[in-house]
Sequence to fold (139 residues):
Amino acid sequence: MNANNSTLRVLVVDDEQLIRAHVRNLLRQMGITDVVEADSGKSALDVLLDVDQVFPDLIISDLHMDGMDGIEFCNTVRRTEMLHNVGVPIIMVTAEDDPFILNVSEQVGALSIAKKPIDLEQLEQLVASYVNIPVAATS
Fold:
């Protein structure tokens, strides 16, 4: 467990509870215990706009969700004045292989695309690259 990880706050956005639980479990294995979950892009925006909430250091969002999908969520975060200058890293998670969809995700502000099913090693590399923490050795 990395001591630096325990201070990170991560927002996990996915409409499937099992996926959110899986990502939360992986984050815990990395020593990240401050995880906020949202079951839709809309509820994630509500979390981000809540002035009483501590802002996350990283957002991990599913691409395909009912209602506001990951692309619309990411685009809204990047275009909302209150959130615009924060520059929180957003990692999009998807099983999608369509290059057009992946390109659009990056165009709206996703810094990286992670392929489902995401594993510990992949998540550690992504988190380390966006929040400046050392990667723990995995066995």
